[in-house]
Prior knowledge:
The chain is mostly helical. It has six helices and no strands. It has a single domain (about 5-185), classed as Up-down Bundle (Four Helix Bundle (Hemerythrin (Met), subunit A)). It has helices spanning about 5-20, 30-55, 60-85, 95-115, 125-145, 150-185. It is globular, with a radius of gyration of 18 Å.
Amino acid sequence: MWTLPNLLSLFRIAVIPVLVYLLTFTDPLSGLLAAALFLLASLTDYFDGYLARRHRTVSNLGKILDPLADKLMIVAALIMVAAIDRPGEPGVPAWLVVVIVARETAVTIIRGIALTEGIVMEAEELGKYKFILQVFAVFSLLVHYPYGGVDFHVAGIYFLLLAAVVALWSGVNYHVKFFRLLQRRNQGGRPLPN
């Protein structure tokens, strides 16, 4: 359990309360600090996978903990940016956050069901693209205010819309993959548990 990749995933989870606390303030500095912390935590997602493969410490726990940490961090940040009222721009549309949170919840549930069937569903390539888009979206929404001619709030909304489309596509793929794996297993003669 205490491998460096798993510790990096746990770090992403540990960052969440600090991120939430920073987002209780609506000033530009708090937004920048939250964005910097979020970006740092997001970068650990690349390194935990890289280190696990390089040092051959890939584990079933890591395959579960890594995407769970990503989901918790993204969902917490999105809920906060949708809830806070910052001056200068309209807020983040709640329906968009609900779509993403619902997808993340559905995929987490299907992965949990898969585990009860002895199937470990790793993150897919499409899910990784979804995460990258979400990182761009959340980072921009955390910065919120315009800097250097870039309206970070508007950029964040566009990235979030794109991330929602990819998230739904990826979510459907996870479900299709799970039911195919389950069907293949059942055709092999192993009965489903009651």
